[in-house]
Every structure is written in structure tokens, then in C-alpha cells.
Amino acid sequence: MSRFKTKTIHHLNIVILIVLSILLNFFLSGLARRLELPLYLDTIGTVLAAMLGGNLAAVIVGFFSNAVNAIYDITKLYYGIISILIGVLASIFHTKRFFEHPMKVLLAIVIFACIGGGLGSFFTYFLQGSDFGAGISAPLSSAIYSMTGSSKLFSEFCADIIIDFFDKTLVVAVAIIIYRMIPDFYKRYTKWVFLFSPAPSNEDSEHRGEIKRSLLRKVIVMVIVAEILLGTLATVTGFILYRQVSVGKFTDIAQGVTKAASIVIDAERIDEFIEKGRNAKGYNEIEKNLYGIKESFPQTTYLYVYKILEDGCHVVFDLDSEGVEAGEPGEIVEFDPTFVPYLPKLFKGEEIEPIFSDDQFGKLLTVYRPLKGSTYVAADIAIDEIVADEFKFVIKLLSVFFGLSIIIMSIVLEFVNRGIVYPVNRMASASMKFAYRFEHDGEAAFKFMESLKIRTFDEIENLYKSILKMCRDLLNYIKQLSIQNKRITRMQNEIIINFAEMVEARDNSTGNHIKKTAFYVEAIAKELRKNGRFTEILTDAYIAKLKRSAPLHDIGKIAVPDSILNKPGKLTEEEFEIMKSHAIEGQKILKKIEANASDSMDDDYLKESIEMALYHHEKWNGAGYPNGLRGEDIPLSARIMAVADVFDALVAERVYKKAMPYEKAMEIILEGAGTSFDPVIVEAFSHIARELYDKRTVLE
User: Fold this and answer.
1) 634-637: which pairs have CB atoms within 8 A and are 24 or more residues apart?
2) Of 207, 384, 563, 697, which residue is 20 to 30 A from 91 by alpha carbon distance?
3) φ and ψ at 583, to 5 degrees?
4) What is the DSSP string of 480-534?
């Protein structure tokens, strides 16, 4: 199946999942209402969408389930944040495998109940008032209130959590049952990338611990901070604008009240009304009309008419209000300190702007309308009404804003995750795999990187192509370098072998000595490792160096005269001393090569060559030359070479002797164990000596 077709099926299944989940919420919540069950059952689809489709699917279902209901009841929109939070948490819980363990399932239910019931009761209390109303939890809230005597908010909070616990228990149980009934193959086609879990990946990186999803975490932090800042700015701005509108609305109400009152009052009889009060003709009828106006505008707290003179405010009309006794006509009321700055205008009967005051009558918004002279009709509206409206507005604004913010944040993070974090993470993983594996499996590591086929059509794709080209070029360069290195190594080996053979060729009887000793040294080293001896030292690389170094062990013989080197008889003491000098001369030659060509040759290889040349005539008991080393003070390479060198010298024909039979040669070698040779090496050699002896002719 093509990737395009797979993605199409994936997206189609996601859409179907979201639609079916929303319908499931509608159907089950409607069924609960029809059967008059004390449950909501309006988040089963949301939890199921979280389990099947991940975070983004869940928040979409949670939001639109409430948004569609808001068409018929706008308050449902404000509760959308609750469904969205439950969807987000359900996605996280499913990722953390909460729904597979009974105790964790119980914990999830309790958390859902605290969000649905606790936050829900908060919204209900502050959006719909302190009365219990006729909601599902109203009877239980009223009962708790009656039995405990606690506050209405606390009673409703407890009742909502209790009911929501049973509701969310059924929600989670039904969602888990439906989820387990759905075939696994369908689940694979509905799974969206979880924003709080590792992105899906088929990489098998042995260095996965070194690749962190820090980029996504940084993006999440930045988006959350941006959302909080934006939310704060939007809330403050909205609050300021709403306050202006709210104050304007209540000011208009107060002005409407004063205007209506000014129509029913006969301004020409103000002094008569002050003097005679209720005995004045028509006073009671006007007062009755004023009460009617006040009742028509329930926001109005106080309605009164004052004539403002130097000695105070003379009451013309003053209507009774709850908890406050009205003043009688003609009564003089002292000036409130808030109004002192406006007295010059009031004495002249001029218009003044609305006034905010805070005195024994509470926080008030006062509007004065001039009637005649310094007589004013005034209406007071309690600011508590404005504050309550403002608080409700902030709650509504925050619930809708953060509900939409979570959806927007989920969508943004999904695109960031898929378009940036996921491909960058895959490139980082592949690059690390290439970096760690290219030496021994570079082709496979490159093929893995090539298989990513990142297609983002932006700078990330260009970066991927650049990395791919760089890795391809590096791989080709390494291949060419490896070929050149092998050529150089082969050339060095040939030069060394030829040089050693030139030296050995001066000895008419030992032309193949260097080849056979190299063969013996390698075989002895492998046998020692096989027997569990010197395993930390005898690696494949070290044994290869031993084999390369062996031909140079007698290179110092170039300094020995031919007359001594090819003498058919026994050497004199003086001649033997000259012969022994070949060990030190070999060291000098190889050290000079090391000093002059160390940048183009393997230093370890030269080190082993020097040790072999200098110490291959040392003996286990310290009786050898040139330094009289004993035991393990003699380097391992030289101890191995000592056995190989003597054995080949014994079984080979020389100018001064005949070839010795295998049995006699092995007798000498075995007798030398612990005196001339390392007994461990002799033991290992004894296991393979016959085989090596039989194969020696192949090298001649």
C-alpha cells in the first residue's frame, strides 16, 4: 500500500472517529436526560477518542460536543473547557497505560470527578448564582446544605464531585469496554501522534538515550507561555472593555431612570413639596409613579430628588429601599464627601458626570439630572451588580479562551511535531547511527538514513538532503581511504618482508625463516587465546601486529659480517658476541624507522617489532641476552617469538648443522620450559607443534 493511500485512510479514520465520538456524547447524554438518570454521560466519546486517536482528537471532540450544545444553551459553551481537560488527561493516562491497572483506573476516575464536579460546580455557582436551581446535583446539594449548615458553594461542590464520581466511573468503564472490543488493526489507523509521548518511530537506535525530545518540550513551553501571556492580555483587555461597556450600560439605565422621573415630577412645585411634603396636592401620586419607575428598572438601588443648597441636600422625594429608610420631605441631608468637588456646579444647577462613591450606603454609581435650579433627580446603582457581571464575564471569557487555546495549541504542536520535531529527531537518530556505525557497517547505516525519505518541502527537507549528500560523500571518501590504506599497508608489508628477506638471504641456509616464524607466532598466539591465556592482550588486532612484526625480529643481522653469519662451524666467543649484537642493532634500526616514519606507519606495529628484535633471545630464567630479563618482564611478543625462533632453528637445516627430527626438537623445547621459555607458551605450542611442523614445507 502506498504511503499516500495509507495517509488518506489514516486521516479518513480520524475524521470518522471524531464524528462518531461526538455523536456518542450526544446520544448517551440525551439518553441520560430522557431516563432522568442522575448522570451526565457526556464524555464517553471524549475519553474513547483520547484512547483511539490521541490528544488532538480528544480536545476536538470535547470542544465541539459542548459547542454544538451551545446553539440551544449558550452556558454549555463555558463548560467546554472541562470536557477538553478530561480529553487531554485521558490521552495522557492512556499513554501511561493507566487504563490497564485497576488502581490507576480508580485514580483516573477520581481526577476526572474532581475536574468535572469540582470545576463544574465552580462554574455553576458563579455563572448561575448561589441558588441550587434544578440541575442534576440540586437535590443532593440542598440535602448537604441542610445537614451540614455549610456554605452553598461547598455544598454544591461536594454534591457535584459525588455525582461526577459515579458518572466518570461509568464513563471510563464503558470507554474501556468499547476500546477493547475494537480490532487492533483499526486502532493502528486511528492513532494520532500523542503530544506528550515519544513520536512513532521504527528506528532501532542503540543510542536512543542520547536523543532527547527536548525540541518539542521547548516548543510546548513556548506555546504554553505564549498562551498564558495572550490569555492574560486578552482577559485584561476584555475586562477593561467590558467594564467600560458595563459602566456605560448601567449609566444609561440610571440616566433612563432619572429622565423618566423628571417627566412625572412637576419641577415648578419643588418648594411646595419640600414645605408641605405628603400634604401637598399630587405628591403621593408622583411618589407612586416614582416607585413604578424604580420597579421597572430593578438595577436601581436608590431613587430620590434633592434640592441642593448651601446648608445641605433638602429632600423632595426619597423612595424606600431594602434595609435603608427613606428621608422625609424637607429633611436636610449632609453632603457626602464624594460630592464636595461637584458642589459649585450643583449649586448652579449644572449637569455633572456620573459619580462613583463608597460610603455607608455601599459602593454606588450615581447619576444626577437637573430639574430646576439646584434641584436634581438622582438614581443610584450598586456597583456590586457591576462587579458580579464583570466576574461572570471573566469566568466565561477564560473558559472559552482556554478551551479554544488548548485546541489551537494542540493543532500547532501537532504540526510542529510532525513538520519539525519528528523529522529532525529522525535525522538526528539516523546521523548518530551513521556516526557510530559507519566504520564497520557504514553502508547499512547510510541505507537506513536514505530510507527516511523526509518530505517537508521546506528547509528541513533541504537539511535532510544536505546531510544525506554529506554522508554519501563521507562514505565514498572512507571507502577510497580504506582502499588506499590497504594498498599502503600492503606496500609497507611487502617492503618490510622484502627487506627482511634481503637480510636473511645473506644467511644461505635460512631463506624461509622469517615466513615460518611469522606463521608459528600467529598460531601460538591464537592457541594461547583459545586456552584462555592472555585474553585481554591477544585481540585480533594484536595478533595481526605480531604476525606483521615477526619478519623483523632478525633485522639486526644486517650489521653482522657474512663471515660470521655463514660460518659453517662453531663460533668463537668473540664471534658469538658479534652475533649477539644483532638484537641491539635491530632495535636501533627499528627505532630510527619509528622516529622518521611514525606519521605514516602504525606505531603499535613498530613497538611490537622493536620488542621482538631486542628481546627474542631473552630467557625465562634470566640467562638470555642482551639485558638478562626474566619471567614476565620479557614482553609477551618476544616470549612467543623465542619459542617460534628456536623451534624453526632446530628443525631447519643450517650451514653449521643438519635439520633436527621433530621429536628431538620438541624434546629440547619441552626441556626449556621454565628455563629458556615461558612454560605457558610452551604448553600451548605443544598442542599445535606437530600440525605446524607438517605444514612448514608449504612455506618453503
Assistant:
1) 634/678, 635/611, 636/534, 636/537, 637/546, 637/549, 637/608, 637/611, 637/612
2) 207
3) -65, -50
4) HHHHHHHHHHHHHHHHHHHHHHHHHHTSTT-TTHHHHHHHHHHHHHHHHHHTTSS
Instruction: State the average pLDDT for the chain.
Output: 80
**CA separation for the pair 584, 75 (Å, rounded):** 100
* Run of H or E including 130: none
Cell of 594: 619509528
Residue 107 sits at the vertex; the CA angle it makes with 101 and 110, to the nearest 5 degrees, is 140
Residue in this structure with the C-alpha cell 415630577, named with its chain if needed: 265
Residue 108 one-letter amino acid = A
Of 139, 144, 83, which Cα lies nearest the Cα of 115?
83
Q: What pLDDT, in 10s, does the model give residues 251-277?
A: 888 889 999 999 999 888 998 899 888
Ranges of beta strands (E only) in 69-109 are none
Q: How many residues does the chain have?
A: 700
Domains and CATH numbers, the chain: 3-194 (1.10.1760), 239-387 (3.30.450), 485-699 (1.10.3210.10)
Distance CA 700, CA 144 (A): 107
Which residues contact residue 531 at a Cβ distance below 8 angstroms, ignoring those fewer than 6 apart?
A: 683, 684, 687
Return the C-alpha cell found at 366.
450615581
HSE, side-chain direction, 13 A CA sphere, residue 588: 9
